[in-house]
């Protein structure tokens, strides 16, 4: 059974938003809402230290997702292959999962449920890549099986000079990895904290 995850190589990302547009179209995300966003961050205060990076915001499909145990109906669940999904048939839109997600990656859908990135599970089931990965013109987005050393994801992680996950200290074990960032996530958020190494392949 695979253990799916995703990464973005920030050395390749040009911030074109093609991934966000592809996601919105593929998943019929209502205007004004987002399953995936790309933010732009500039740090430094003079030409010598000025650095630009992009923040990729989507569900991290955590291995220990805090959104799951708080769901009163069991609508939020983790599949055997590691995807954190929402069963819209039993979601009551109470937003407990929205509050529990420490990354703010869920949103209340106008039809009365909570929505988020599914890594395009319907496309994966059909043997296709997530829409955002397929649309990326620079191949910055990488999808694959974390347990398969031959998968593109494992190879990209192994080749990266720098690997981060968002706030590893929370213990949620995100399966979305940021590779080769010129600015650490804490720096990008203005927290002035040193980057923390990510444990990327262990369970």
What does it look like?
By secondary structure, the chain is α+β, with helices and mostly antiparallel strands. It has six helices and ten strands, in the order βαββββαββααβαββα. It has a four-stranded mixed β-sheet. Strands 2-3 form a two-stranded antiparallel sheet. The model is unreliable at 193-203 (pLDDT under 50).
Give the number of DSSP strands.
10
The percentage helix is: 10-25%
Number of helices: 6
Major sheet: order of its strands? 8-1-10-9
Order of helices and strands: EHEEEEHEEHHEHEEH
Computed CA radius of gyration, to the nearest angstrom: 17 Å
Mean pLDDT: 91
Structural class: alpha+beta
Task: Describe the sheet with the most strands.
Answer: 4 strands, mixed
Question: How much strand content do the residues show?
Answer: 15-25%
Q: Report low-confidence residues grouped into runs of 5 or more.
A: 193-203
Cα distance spanning the termini:
14 Å
User: What is the overall silhouette?
Assistant: globular
How would you sum up this structure in a few lines?
By secondary structure, this protein is an alpha+beta fold.
Keywords, separated by commas or semicolons:
203 residues; alpha+beta; 4-stranded mixed β-sheet; two-stranded antiparallel ribbon; 6 helices; 20% strand; globular; disordered C terminus
